[in-house]
Write a structure and sequence with these properties.
The chain has one helix and 13 strands. A hairpin with a 5-residue loop joins strand 10 and strand 11. The two termini are 30 Å apart. 3% of the residues lie in helices and 38% in strands. A four-stranded antiparallel β-sheet has the order 4-5-6-7, with no helix packed on it. The chain is mainly β.
């Protein structure tokens, strides 16, 4: 609907703002400084990426500089719809990530790491999530059901991670997913 959506990734940026193209304020989701963690249904935790899926009029949020999840809101009303963490499971903020060397060689972490940096939804309804510092992307159905994961240079010791953002090819089938590393 040609609206402008804004979020921030600082510690107190726990909201999303929606405006018209001309700058008229339409809606706020969440409240600055009020985040209580990855299972908070009202507030965000440094949202890094936003994607409005036109077919369902849903706002998908990579809520991941301080939280460890994807959260979905109704794009018209701002009402909470659902959220999930890695593998489609409930996020667990108490999970302690192993040291970087072990993270790269051991079993994949059961949680999204910070930041959950980007989210995109393809024309066929697949949700792509950038789990940046875990060097992976995960793919889900619209309801959060886990489909698969792909590692991008998993063995790098560079702490920034490898999966920063996505772009889907402009063809109708969206045959290609471009990954920014």
């Amino acid at each position: 609907q040609d609206n402008v959506w804004l979020s921030g990734s600082a510690k107190e940026d726990n909201q999303i703002l929606k405006f018209t193209r001309t700058g008229r304020f339409l809606m706020q989701i969440g409240h600055a400084g009020k985040n209580t963690g990855s299972n908070d249904l009202e507030n965000l935790g440094g949202p890094a990426g936003l994607f409005v899926y036109a077919k369902t009029r849903e706002l998908f949020v990579a809520d991941g500089y301080f939280n460890h999840r994807v959260i979905v809101f109704d794009a018209n009303t701002g009402a909470y719809k659902r959220h999930w963490g890695a593998y489609g499971k409930k996020p667990d903020d108490a999970y302690t990530f192993p040291a970087r060397a072990q993270l790269l060689q051991g079993p994949p972490p059961p949680q999204f790491n910070n930041p959950v940096h980007s989210v995109s939804v393809s024309n066929d309804g697949l949700v792509y999530v950038a789990d940046r510092t875990n060097n992976r992307l995960q793919v889900f159905e619209l309801d959060g059901t886990f489909i698969k994961e792909v590692f991008i240079v998993r063995n790098t010791l560079q702490a920034e991670g490898t999966v920063h953002h996505f772009a889907l090819s402009p063809d109708e089938e969206q045959r290609f997913l471009y990954v920014v590393d």
